Amino acid sequence: MSSTVEPSEASISPGALDDFLADAARILGSANVIRTERECRLYSTDFSEVELATAAAIVRPHSTGDVVALVKAANRHRVPLAPRGGGMSYTLGYVPARPGTVLLDMTAMNRILEINVEDLRVTVEPGVTWKQLHEALRPTGYYVPFVGTFSGERATVGGGLGNNAVGHGGTDIGEHLLGMEVVLPDGRVLQTGARAHAPREPIVRGYGPDFTGVFVHDAGAFGIKTQASFRLVRRPRATAYRTYGFSSEETLVKAICAAARLGTATEIFSFGEYHHRLFAGQPKPPPTEAAALAKAVLANAPSRMRGLMHLGTLARGMRFLLRWPYSLTVTVDSHSVRGADECAQEIDRVMQGLGGRRLPPSLGIALRAQPFFRIGTLMVGLDGASSFPSNFSVPLSRAQELVAEARAFFEENAGEMRRHGVYVATIFISWKGIFGMEPIIFWPDRLNALRFETALPQIREAFGGQQARPETRAYAVDLRRRLVDRLQHLAPAHFQIGKFYPYREAVAGHAGWDLIEDFKKRLDPAGLINPGALGL
């Protein structure tokens, strides 16, 4: 079973690209049309380490009107377009599959258009980052419960919509989504959900058929998202934090599922030895960063005394994690301190019954205070290794089976992995009654263009000159493909399908794929919008 789209041999007609880019320059101004080889290669690279085609150019719209004009020009000249957000893909989401593709860099559409606390909604453009939205909403006392992705401060709302993002907040991006504005492949503008009948005052998403879900997790195949409206919720007044140590993976998975079934936790996630070393080895932050962290911790606390207690916990560091092969972190939100504490105490009893040892809750406190990692700390390993994750989601009842199958796969490949210097670290997460597993494969190699560009200065200095290891890289890419194929019999769901996961095979056996293909042909008969996305 192949789980990665193959590059297309199709090409655009001679002169079409130049004609399109001339139109784009008139629409956007020449400064927003980029053709340098370095930029085109960088923008066509993601963390997957799979090379398809290189973008012929990059264009940077600033408004819905710009996008409409660009899409119409692309239709005239038969030039394929692919939208790109913050560039945090590891599944070829925006990587061109056809020669001559032009990338739409959506990051200049980064305005928060409305924050309406009275009517409990916020409307943003797709280039707004989750960090930007989080900081803009904080003074209001309200928030979107999907706080943002784990992929760092550069991740954008548009990218999250195209990938059905999960992450901070214990929910997914669609949970509080009211509707979207989408530019269709022929240049028409569609309003979905609550925006369909009231684009300026969206309130009821289900007033008639709701097309919103069709454009969530479409990997940009069905249109270009230009606005999104979300429901605001009052921030909880109190949060209780818990971290537990576990000695075995099997018991850890039982504990994750037990915590999920209680239904009281907002966030449930776990780490193993690799991430324990990562957290324990973090250097003391400079004074300005330490002050910002302290301010955020105090702001999150229901009282100054509770906030000072949390700061005292953080001051102890995280070296205690090194004594445990696995840790489980749980956060509980409530509108009262008593409510949060009582729910956390119930979780304590369940975890203790499973052999969990209560540890200082430093991880939960720190991640809630500063949820947005600098991406340069994520995609380069402690030893300078490159890495990419895969994700698998199954019902709670199949969690042990999923984990055991993945463990068996890596044990079977252990010899070759050692020979190549490849290793794996796994993160587990649960939200909305779902069990999620994210094995991260690491291998020694040069930093590709995107890793180098996003790396912190000290990482560039330490590892920027590493030798290329093409044989090892090819082995890691193949190992990841085989892992995905191995686990497909468990029917896992995947986030960030892009051009990587075998979506067509996943929906075989009923009319789903036929409808998806028909919908794509109806909207985009020439196949110009992100060819290859979803396997189309």
Written description of the protein model:
The protein is of the alpha+beta class and 536 residues long. The chain has 4 domains: 16-108 and 518-535, Uridine Diphospho-n-acetylenolpyruvylglucosamine Reductase, domain 2; 112-234, Uridine Diphospho-n-acetylenolpyruvylglucosamine Reductase, domain 3; 238-369, Alpha-Beta Plaits (2-Layer Sandwich), CATH 3.30.70.3450; 375-497, Alpha-Beta Plaits. Helix content is 36%, strand content 19%. It contains 19 helices and 21 strands. It has helices spanning 16-28, 37-43, 64-77, 130-137, 157-163, 212-215, 249-262, 273-280, 287-300, 304-315, 337-353, 362-369, 399-412, 414-420, 449-454, 457-463, 470-487, 503-506, 512-523, and strands spanning 33-34, 57-59, 81-84, 102-105, 112-116, 121-124, 142-143, 148-149, 167-168, 177-183, 189-191, 224-231, 233-234, 238-246, 267-272, 326-334, 357-359, 386-389, 392-395, 423-431, 434-443. Strands 14, 15, 16, 17, 18, 19, 20 and 21 form an 8-stranded antiparallel beta sheet that branches. A hairpin with a 4-residue loop joins strand 5 and strand 6. Helix 9 (287-300) crosses helix 12. The radius of gyration is 23 Å and the shape is globular. The two termini are 16 Å apart.
